Structure prediction request, 654 residues.
Amino acid sequence: MKKIMNEPGMIVEEMLEGIVKSYPELVHRVEDSRVIAKNQEQKQVGLISGGGSGHEPAHAGFVGEGMLSAAILGDVFTSPTPDQIHTAIKAADQGEGVLMVVKNYTGDILNFDMAKDLAEMDDIAVEQVVVDDDIAVENSTYTAGKRGVAGTILVHKILGDAARNGASLSELKELGDQVVATIKTIGVALKAATVPEVGKPGFELAEDEIEYGVGIHGEPGYRREKLQPSKELAKELVTKILSDYTEKPKEVGVLVNGMGGTPLMEQFVFINDVLGLLEEAEVSVTFKKVGDLMTSLDMQGLSLTLIDLTATNWQTALTSDVQTISW
Amino acid sequence: MKKIMNEPGMIVEEMLEGIVKSYPELVHRVEDSRVIAKNQEQKQVGLISGGGSGHEPAHAGFVGEGMLSAAILGDVFTSPTPDQIHTAIKAADQGEGVLMVVKNYTGDILNFDMAKDLAEMDDIAVEQVVVDDDIAVENSTYTAGKRGVAGTILVHKILGDAARNGASLSELKELGDQVVATIKTIGVALKAATVPEVGKPGFELAEDEIEYGVGIHGEPGYRREKLQPSKELAKELVTKILSDYTEKPKEVGVLVNGMGGTPLMEQFVFINDVLGLLEEAEVSVTFKKVGDLMTSLDMQGLSLTLIDLTATNWQTALTSDVQTISW
Prediction:
């Protein structure tokens, strides 16, 4: 294992310090916690997210004016504990309640739920939106139902904009559920990630092999085959995602998300193919984003996310200015 | 070689299309060229940069209001041709002249110089600033003198801000030369990049080996040794850079730049160590930036850049808002 780190067991702590020391004008660490919160407090519903570390810039990179109020950093690929989530809720609450954006993994669901109970004992109103955008497989290694992956960042963005514009907790909850229902993602892996404390890749792919549908913790996908040209990868993912919609969207947003070990050059080649296919399919694309947003340590690969924007006004929220490290 | 691409020989063309189709609100392609230019035209000195591709987001990701007017994309690790650079100069010129920011490689110097001659025949005033921030070695594979690497992006940022605030061509040239003189960078590689048309890594490192001072095209560095903890890597680079300044800076900006295959988690661990060492050395840090800005395809590794900000007001320029894909 070749990683730039010190003790594997200290990697999250040291990363967290690195983040808050690098961008003190945007975020700070809530004392004695694994919570990164935005500096600027506004009278609005608090919006929090989090999960295991190893998905950087998610979620700390999306804390700031117009997106998240706070993020909780669990150990690598491990849900944060209820008390840490509770700390984030308290940090985010401005008296208007707090919405939690939770990726659909059994451990996260359990712990965010317990944190909600703790917060309600403090009389903080809490709601949650569960993101399960990964349509590759049902009931994966750590999940009942579908996994939550890169589409989560679009949920942060749309809800973050609504929250700063004064949406109430119940309005945010309703909007969040609507948004989640329109988002679909599939990933493709060229090479597995190595968890620092494990020291070897989570799975093995042959030198000429790829796997469709791998999760962001290396959970199994749905098919292995020989490495394909970008056009073929794009065709597989676009076709599968479009056919998963009950009604074909007239208008979508596209997110191409690098997994951590795949350079931007390849991501831009891939989105070029995706956009070509969507044009052929007569699907209009009114929002695009490319880059490493929800990674899986040093995994090589990427994911494609579509969000159905037909008859919505979410483009405004998706393109509004924010003050974060990484959007 | 595992890369998401189609024909290796088409990778730059397809990436370029991917970039302009993804961010049409910010940039466009100058017709029949390898030039990406910003949409918004202001009456200011034009600022252009470019070089071989494979360093994404450099330079196209830094085109936009407040940074570059245009970027030229050469083939992978290959200087753009004089006629392409000439096209960029014409696109960037608003009647106030054009400043070229050139990384110090023999091919780039030659071709930008020829383009300057071509532009002067069109009566466009052109100046250039040559960036040679890589203090690892003198006279490398493609370079007479020192190489130009990640510090180039800080030059874009400071000059971009000055240009939009009305600096004249001669003022920009003078400022650029001053800025370059204060920037020092060294990289460290864990694994070499693979050029798409070559198909195998540019050099080989053993499974437990790193190389200090490797260039962004895989040029040799100055020492190989066993993989070190982040703290030791930071110590090597900070010590070497600080001791290269004639007078120890009182105040610096820090850029930690990922090489393309190194996730943000590791970059934040590393900057945490760097900031600790600078604090011990009583050097104040008033600007920080972390991320993949000047990559080397899928190379694993990173570089550290310091810019001496003592007695300057460049922090304002470094932190000002811009409208680009990747700053």
User: Anything to note?
Assistant: Helices of chain A lie at 11-22, 82-92, 106-121, 151-164, 169-181, 230-244, 264-280, 314-319. Chain A touches chain B through 59 residues (CB under 8 Å). The mean pLDDT of chain A is 97. The longest helix of chain A spans residues 264-280.
